[in-house]
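fwd from M.: "can u put these together and see what the complex looks like"

so here's what she sent:
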Amino acid sequence: MRFSLVRQLLLLLGLAFLPAIGQAVYYRNSTSWAQPPVDSAPVSLAQAESWGGTVLWLDARSDEQFARRHIPGALQLNEDRWDDLLRAMLLQWSPDRRLVVYCSRETCHASHEVAERLRKEAGLTNVYVLQGGWEEWETAHR
Amino acid sequence: MKIRSAFLIVSLTFLFLRPAGAALVWEQKEADLHPALTDKTAVAHFKYKNTGDKPVKITSVHASCGCTTAALAKDTVAPEESGEIVATFTIGDRSGVQTKTITVRTDDQPEQATILKLKATIPQLLQVAPVFLFWSAKDALTPKVITVGVGADYAVDKINVTSTDKSIETEVVPVPDKKEFRVIVKPTESGRPINASLKIEPVLKADAHKPYYANVRIDSRAKPPPQ
């Protein structure tokens, strides 16, 4: 009796695994959507603000969001108009500046993508992503 | 024996049952887009149908970035009614594979959001690296090199490079047996800060392509080029 129950449980578990295995095989080449963005040297708001005037704030949000409100002194740098905005940003850049990129909130990936392009394509160092994004700054400065 | 058979049947039934309360059924939750070189946007259609017996209200549709908008014709879906969410991804100056998500919430399952996924593979005619050259106060103004690779699907025999500052000279050298060019950037002047932009354009019969850019910055204290 006990052996039979164990056998049935094993059978059920085996059946439950079949669709999972099938899905894993079918989607083996798919993008992992749950994959977190590349680690982009996160920095807390307190840490970034402690750097004072060496920080160059970079706003990776859309033009509309930037126009509505942004961190004072921040420059726009998003991928919608990357070429133009990068050129303008580089005029303000100097080797001693720390670049802190932010977008709207924690789940926004734009800041990570902008930070990654600054490192890979422009070869810049001292590039950070603000933890909590614009929402964090806005909450702290209400 | 009968009890055991009943147990097995009930268990198997639960195993293959669809999730309860899933009234909105999506035709597809992932879109794989391949826009053309000249396209400004990539559009995905996510179709759904209310297979339940009650109206379903779509309470929120939220895209993961400002570059994607999601349009909804009507927010309440009657039983057996179909509809779609049209997601428009603005390509802008992005390149490579871009993945964006759209989170949809409905009133029948407020805690369980549906994640729609949009993947756009943006063709790249040229790959410029690095896009920024900097000569600091410590540097001598010796030439630096920018590599311009040609995308796998394209044939480019020649590129033109123009500088916004006449003191920055450039020389384009094709790399033999590789779909690649080397752009040698030579500063010819010192003693003043220079911010220049290099416009890099492929010479193609078709005119429908955007230019690429690299940026040059020279500190006024950078040392003159060696004689």
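replying to her w this: The CA atoms of residues 5 and 36 of chain A lie 42 Å apart.
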